[in-house]
Amino acid sequence: MDDAPQYVIEMLHITKEFPGIKANDDITLQLKRGEIHALLGENGAGKSTLMSVLFGLYQPEAGEIRKDGKPVKINNPNDATALHIGMVHQHFKLVEVFTVLENIILGAEDTKLGFLQKKQARQKVEQLSEKYGLQVDLDAKVEDITVGMQQRTEILKMLYRDNEILIFDEPTAVLTPQEIEELMSIMKNLVKEGKSILFISHKLNEIMAVADRVSVLRKGRYIGTVNTKDTNKQELSNMMVGRPVQLEVVKEPAKPKDVVLHIENMSVASKLHKRNAVNNVSLDVRAGEIVCIAGIDGNGQTEFVFGLTGLEPLTGGKIELCGEDISKYSIKHRGMNMSHIPEDRHKHGLVLDFTLEQNMVLQRYQEPEFQHGGFIRFDNVRSYAQRLIDRFDVRSGQGPITIARSMSGGNQQKAIIARELDRNKPLVVAVQPTRGLDVGAIEFIHSQLVAQRDEGKAILLVSLELEEVLSLSDRILVMYEGEIVGELDPKKTSAQELGLYMSGAKRSGKEGETV
Amino acid sequence: MTFWKKEGTQKILSSLISILFGLFVGAIVVFIVGLCNERISLKGAWEGIRLIFIGILSTGRNASGSLTWGFNSANIGNMLFRATPLIMTGLSVALAFKTGLFNIGAPGQYLMGTLGTLFIALSIPSGSMPGWLIWILAFLGGVLGGMLWGAIPGLVKAFLNINEVLACIMTNWIAANLVTWAFDESNLKNMVEGTKSGYIYKTTYGLVDGTYVDGAGIATTKLGLNKIFPGSQINAGILIAILLAIAVYILISKTTLGYELKACGANRHAARYAGIHDKRNIVLSMALAGGLAAAGASLYFLSGNTEFFWSTYQSLPSTGFNGIPVALLALNNPIGVIFAAIFMAMLDIVGLQLTNLTAYNEYITDVIIAVIVYLSAFSLAIRMLIAGKAKKKALSKSDGPAPAAPAEPAPAVDLAPAADAAANTEKGGDEV
Predict the structure, then answer these.
(1) In chain B, what are the domain boundaries?
(2) Among residues A299, B197, B210, B285, which one has the fewest Cβ atoms lying within 10 Å of its Cβ?
(3) H-helix or E-strand containing A124?
(4) Going by C-beta distance under 8 Å and a sequence separation of 6 or more, which residues neighbour residue B95?
(5) Is ipTM beyond 0.90?
(6) Distance of CA A436 to CAs A153, A169, A441, B330, B432, Å?
(7) Do A128 and A149 touch, CB atoms closer than 8 A?
(8) What CATH number labels B76-341?
(9) Neighbours of B185 (CB within 10 A)
(10) What is the rounded CA–CA span in Å between residue B373 and residue B347?
């Protein structure tokens, strides 16, 4: 490393232990002023722990933090804020029933005689949001807005506080390609203005595109720091995982068979506005193919899936699954032929306060294998959960009796995928199955989905991530403002063309009826 | 897992510590009140303190005027008798808590149970059917009344998304007025014992040729318990309450219905996603809670030695509200509820002893009970403290980290998710 550079933040030989585990083992991270420094590592590599130490949420057992070369003690997030360290957390820290504006100013309110000065705050936020192109509806309640807008709210929160060291924890997980590009340019602008950015990500493309240097962690240990211009994606992923990783999805061409899912003119009402969130959508999914619904977040994909799985009622149209009209069926009844990997694993996918084994039988507890005369057969539940854990390599502290909440995001997702795929249904609805996961986990999940396809399952994938859409699907349907605006062949299209469809700039035919 | 690290041990320990702490503070209150009251000497204050801790074993005073101690069958029997309705309201609150609902409507459900039970017990002419059948009908009628009353906040919550606490508070007062009105209009008011006013007949009164006759009615069988605890009001009701507690325990932890109810309580969205009828389960859960609270009223008033003061429109039965501290103290464990309710009943008896044997007046005993109950509710905080200690110990023990070895179970998982995420992940650190 260079001798001269002015480090704005240095974390030297940080060690943080939890019972039975060293989450951080002698990790050194040095952030130069005005650089974008990426922190790369798999789930459980210790990135979040390291950032929590920097943010004052944990106290390290050993090591030292320096700001501008001077040792500092960060005992709590207030100390971090005083040092102008700001963080956008992976799981948003927003008050759901507050408006966007209220969330942004929360904790840093301007008051006059004890009264909130919202007007000034609003002006400042509006300026920031315009300057950085962060579109938010300041008066919408957080519980009503999309995940993407929640993310933008978080970023604005940090900017509102004039922070100079900005930590982005997986900021792009929920953004569209265009939004990601915008964010990248925002980050570059911020750096130009003298701010320093710590960028936590698994996404090698983004790191290569935006970061100046990358520090890699693996299993709590520091592997090394490299300049992005001296490295490449393959090398980084190998450093991160510790073995050569398959970055591309390996699959044979699809051999589609009979139609499993047939949707005709389906409409679903919106909760945000009077129009339909899903409008007149028709599509088919055949056995043995992966059909992907691509689109920018908030274009009706969520409502489409809710309508399909029964979480929301249809306002029109018909759904046929395996030749049966299921449009009026209950969620349970639909589940007879359908697995659903939900978009929000904390809200829908898991009962977080239940144990892993309880979560594994969430839909199946009434099957004779798991109950007898209304009494749960605990030994069968246990052995079934253990089987899934082994087969899908779900890692947890106490195996089947681990509380789901205490597991890492990647393993929570693996547990859901294990549960849903093992139900062995003709249709698999997978909504953002790899959101926020690392390369290793994504590789695993993609290969599982391809295996399901090859077994003759119909797979309906909903994804916001272009790379995933292009590499995994056999057919792409683009959804824009609740309508299917185009069908593309992933082998013949490009990210740019897909982006045009996704942003509504291009559509094939009228009313998306080409499908 | 060693004994001290078990979650169960920590739970029980935390409740015991908070009880002791509460008793200790109660003793301090007694001491201070004693100092401030000129009628109470230092010796009197010391007596008060001893009564706070072991009043249940007090047998009165001997000829020389000092307190005597020993097995007091009347006290212990009465304690169990008073614990009976508390077990039921405690179960009611605990069951609702387990399914994610706060049932503050136990007083109303208790009143509706009283209404159903007394009307059925007193309206069926004695001799028209066997006494035990009347007893069962009256019991079930009360339970049904409570279930219906509990279902109302459940329905309102499930279908209109109105907070159950709000609905419960309102249904409580509706019940209070409804019950007063119903008894006011009825001919169940005790006219035989002219010296009393405002009371409904005890269930020992039976309807014989249009008039109420004492002894012709029904009462819960004693089942020989009065031989074990002579001089007390105890009857088989306590056994029924214990059986019901065990039934609730089995329901919650062993059955698919319990699993459904818990899933709805812990994450309504996930339950719905999995095809569980979340709305039905919310209503069911509140109805069951209401039925349990009402069963407490049925068992209490069917004992035959209790009278109902019917003009209750300005107050709600404290037994209903006391279900909340009982459930808290028991950390919502149905078996724990039995012991927590018995403890609360013991405080009641201790209060009586304090009033009877010392110069402390009865109101100070209520204050002390309130202090103890209040501090008992801290058992959750104490549990966190114990769990934290256990964690620190585990940390200092593990010198060399063994990343591959399964991490020590972190007990307060729900309380410190971030820290435990790291502790529980087998090979990694925390979630990234």
Answers:
(1) 1-71+359-394, 76-341
(2) B210
(3) helix A118-131
(4) B103, B248, B252, B285, B288, B289, B292, B334
(5) no
(6) 18, 10, 10, 40, 9
(7) no
(8) 1.10.3470
(9) 9
(10) 9
Question: Could you give the CA distance from residue B379 to residue B20 in angstroms, rounded to a whole number?
Answer: 11
CA pair distance A384, A365, nearest whole angstrom: 11
Q: What pTM did the predictor assign?
A: 0.77
Percentage with pLDDT > 90 across chain B? 46
Q: Give the gap in angstroms from C-alpha B246 to the nearest C-alpha of chain A.
A: 15
Task: Enumerate the β-bridge partners of residue A286.
Answer: A259
Beta strands A483-488 and A475-480: pairing type?
antiparallel
**Of residues A309, A366, A397, nearest to B423 (C-beta):** A397
Residues in chain A: 515
| Nearest by CB: B402 against A20, A405, A438 | A20
Q: What is the pLDDT of residues A378-426, one digit of tens each?
A: 999 999 999 999 998 888 878 899 999 888 778 899 999 999 999 999 9
Other C-beta atoms lying within 10 Å of the C-beta of residue A253: 8
Residue B324 structure tokens: 């909340």
CA B430/CA B406 separation, integer angstroms: 14
Which of A163-172, B50-59, B263-272, B378-387 has maximum average pLDDT?
B263-272
- Strand A70-72 and strand A324-325: the pairing is unpaired
Mutation for testing the B interface, residue in A16, A17, A21, A167 having most B CBs under 10 Å: A21
pLDDT band at B358 (very low <50, low <70, confident <90, very high): confident
Of A19, A200, A342, the CB nearest to B391: A19
| Token pair of B312 as six digits | 């209750």
Chain B residues in contact with A355 by the CB 8 A cut-off are none
CB within 8 A of B28, min separation 6: which ones? none
**Using the 8-state DSSP alphabet, how is residue A399 labeled?**
G
Strands (E), A221-325: 221-227, 259-269, 276-286, 290-294, 316-321, 324-325
Chain A residues whose CB is inside 8 A of the B270 CB are 347-351, 362
Token pair belonging to A176: 């569209």
SS3 B88: helix
Residue A330: both structure tokens together: 């209950």
Contacts of A168 in chain B (CB under 8 A): none
Q: Closest Cα of chain B to A462: distance in Å?
A: 17
d(CA A56, CA A45): 19
Inter-residue contact A474 to A445 (CB < 8 Å): no
* Closest among A32, A25, A24, A29 to A4, alpha carbons compared: A32
List b or e across B50-80, with b for residues whose CB sees 16 or more CB atoms inside 10 angstroms.
bbbeebbbbeeeeeeeebeeeebbebbbbbb
Sign (positive or negative) of CA dihedral A128, A132, A133, A138: negative
pLDDT of residue B245: 97
A351: which chain B residues are within 8 Å (Cβ-Cβ)?
Answer: 263, 266-267, 270-271
Structure tokens, A227: 């300049």
Q: Which of B266, B273, B405 is closest, CB to CB, to A348?
A: B273
Determine whether the interchain pair A406/B410 forms a contact, defined as Cβ–Cβ distance below 8 Å. Answer: yes
Q: Partners of A321 in the beta sheet? A: A261, A324
**Chain A: residue whose CA lies nearest to B270:** A348
CB contact under 8 A, A331 and B273: yes
Output phi, psi for A267, to 5 deg: -130, 145
Q: Which two three-digit tokens encode residue B14?
A: 């935390």
Q: Are B80 and B290 in contact (CB under 8 A)?
A: no
Q: Across B74-221, where does the E strand assignment appear? A: 205-208, 211-214
8 Å CB contact of B394 and A19: yes
Query: Cβ B259–A365 below 8 Å, yes or no?
Result: yes
Nearest by CB to residue B429, choosing from A49, A342, A371, is A49
Cβ–Cβ under 8 Å, residues B149 and B105: yes
Residues in chain A within 8 Å Cβ distance of B407: 18-21, 397-398
